[in-house]
């Protein structure tokens, strides 16, 4: 048994040496380490949610006010400090959840717009004879509102430097979207190499994006009933608590240590079920393959 374990360790060590020297892999896994996307800052999250005029201090103040209101409601209902604190923490998370929901909604709107934008890009670069940079910026002016600022910054970079690679890299950073990465890479290669295959590539990409958008719409439609039922996680226990307060000496049942512990446990379960169901309803996002590839490397490869 010891010999088998030693052989396995030796084989694994040989694999790590070979993958490190030959394939330039790092880490201890059985494949290359995937770069993790850089997490968005709070200011970026607020901007993407359409709340660019809201500062972090204003959001914190709102969270404090909503948490105080939730804590006061919990204390009035259950007449205890621990349930009130749990209600306050749970309520304070609603502004953050609202920001996240708005950000996801705007991201979904942007994804829904890509098939139309790609078809418009095909028409401008094909039948209307626009250059690739000119067609890209014309499409960007009619993009959804949350995407226009990124297109404006990219157009400003192009006017100042006429470096299309740097312009596309700036656009990729601003949009931070897998579809935008694929479009930018396609346009970069077409602008550098030339040829008549751009229309065919854009048509294939538009068809793929249209299928993805339709699949996401079907998934959201199927989730509508589940999302409606999810609200009962909050409404039903709250209604039962109010009903218990109005029947006989139901309010006195909350005063004892056992009642307070039961209420605290129930509130924690409600919060956990709410968070867990939210994670289950979250649609997966497409992995960004070209996010970290700079323009200089792309141009060197195409040449």
Name its key features:
0% strand, 303 residues, mainly alpha
Structural write-up:
With 303 residues, the protein is mainly α. It has a domain at 107-216. Helix content is 77%, strand content 0%. The chain contains 12 helices and no strands. The longest helix has 45 residues, at 81-125. 21% of the residues are buried.
Number of helices: 12
Residue-averaged pLDDT, rounded? Answer: 77
Instruction: Tell the overall outline.
Output: extended
> How are helices and strands ordered from N to C?
HHHHHHHHHHHH
Would you count the extended β strands for me?
0
Helix content: over 70%
Distance between the termini: 54 Å
Let me know the largest β-sheet.
Answer: none
What's the helix and strand layout?
Blueprint: H1 2-22, H2 42-48, H3 56-78, H4 81-125, H5 132-141, H6 145-161, H7 164-175, H8 178-193, H9 198-230, H10 232-246, H11 257-281, H12 295-302
Helix pairs in contact: 3-4, 4-5, 4-9, 4-11, 5-6, 6-7, 7-8, 7-12, 8-9
In short:
It is built from twelve helices and no strands. It is mainly alpha-helical and 303 residues long.
